[in-house]
């Protein structure tokens, strides 16, 4: 198990399957009550891949949940298993991991904003979240991070322009006919 924490494996898996989220919550229905936020990282798989999700939970913390809905049988969808990390100590451990083992896909942009927002929030939030009342500037700052993450997730196009990237030297350019 220790080798999983020292390898780049989770970074590669997270590039394809991971999700960085900032969730907003209120302690009551009053809209004037300052918000608190929860930072989560999750990976969801079909439940026949539960072994790896459970292994990740053992190494990095968090919880594992299984989801099966009777309607899935009718729709042809499969039961799922999710690994969800939300506890502050576990999130900080994941930040250490992803800083040491960087993501390589466009998800890295998501991670960078998520990480920055988590650090700002963890250093400035009042203990107990909105029970003590987070300052409005902090709520607005975290909402800005959420907005930026949403914008970054929009499709940007294959190359972002019509520029063709040609191979160099002995590299071969493969074209797939569809």
Q: Helix tally?
A: 7
Strand content: 15-25%
Question: What is the CATH architecture assignment?
Answer: Roll
Provide the CATH topology: Endonuclease I-creI
Biggest β-sheet: strands ordered side by side in the sheet: 1-2-4-3
Number of distinct beta strands: 4
Q: Which shape, going by the Cα principal axes?
A: globular
Distance between the termini: 42 Å
Biggest sheet, open or closed, and with what strands and sense?
A: 4 strands, antiparallel
Indicate the mean pLDDT: 84
Low-confidence stretches at least 5 residues in length (pLDDT < 50)?
171-178
Assigned CATH superfamily: Homing endonucleases
Secondary-structure-derived class = alpha+beta
Q: Any key phrases for this structure?
A:
178 residues; alpha+beta; Endonuclease I-creI; 44% helix
């Amino acid at each position: 198990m220790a080798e999983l924490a020292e390898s780049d494996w989770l970074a590669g898996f997270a590039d394809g399957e991971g999700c960085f989220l900032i969730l907003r919550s209120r302690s009551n229905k009053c809209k004037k009550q300052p918000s608190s936020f929860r930072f989560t990282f999750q990976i969801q798989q079909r439940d026949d891949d539960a072994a790896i999700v459970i292994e990740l939970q053992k190494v990095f913390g968090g919880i594992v949940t299984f989801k099966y809905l009777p309607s899935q049988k009718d729709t042809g969808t499969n039961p799922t298993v999710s690994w969800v990390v939300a506890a502050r100590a576990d999130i900080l451990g994941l930040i250490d991991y992803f800083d040491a083992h960087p993501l390589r896909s466009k998800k890295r942009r998501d991670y960078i904003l998520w990480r920055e927002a988590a650090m700002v929030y963890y250093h400035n939030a009042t203990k107990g979240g909105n029970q003590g009342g987070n300052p409005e500037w902090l709520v607005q700052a975290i909402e800005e991070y959420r907005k930026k993450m949403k914008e970054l997730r929009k499709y940007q196009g294959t190359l972002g322009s019509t520029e063709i990237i040609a191979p160099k030297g002995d590299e071969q350019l493969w074209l797939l006919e569809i």
